[in-house]
């Protein structure tokens, strides 16, 4: 009987993907540039589209889906470029944090809009539209960047305690 072949008997352990904040910041840069270009080329239509989708209750679920898909795509790209496997902590963060961030910012957006409406200011419709537009941008950026920040902080904490 011969010895088993080393290629078949030894399982190679792939390391867990390490997240750098620069990876997420690249995506935030592209997202910000896209948001700005849509605003430059469609100065009336793009904000109106966002405000109308907010009024019909479609904006926050769409932001949740967009941030979740962006975060998942970024993390899988990081894992692919590093030839590493996605970690379970990162998967849990990417599954829940974009939804929590956008949901929390949705509550802040609702309170900002109600605060704006409660003030007796002229041109309330335009001010409400600006609040919705600004919070939409902050929700997108926060929903993409904050989960990677949490992953990075948790991974540093795990390596210091290991």
Q: Could you please describe the fold and organization of this structure?
A:
The protein is mostly helical. It is built from six helices and no strands. α3 crosses α6. The longest helix has 38 residues, at 124-161. It is elongated and about 85 Å long.
Number of helical stretches of at least 4 residues: 6
> Can you give the mean pLDDT?
84
Runs with pLDDT <50, length 5+?
none
Q: Which structural class matches the secondary elements?
A: mainly alpha
Helix content: over 70%
N to C succession of SSEs: HHHHHH
User: Termini separation (Å)?
Assistant: 42 Å
How would a textbook summarize the main sheet? Answer: none
User: Beta fraction of the residues?
Assistant: under 5%
Please report the total strand number as a whole number: 0
Number of domains: 1
Radius of gyration: 21 Å
Overall morphology: elongated
Q: Short description, anyone?
A:
With 162 residues, this protein is mainly α. The chain has six helices and no strands.
Secondary-structure topology with pairs:
Blueprint: H1 6-9, H2 21-41, H3 45-55, H4 59-81, H5 88-118, H6 124-161
Helix pairs in contact: 2-6, 3-6, 4-5, 4-6, 5-6
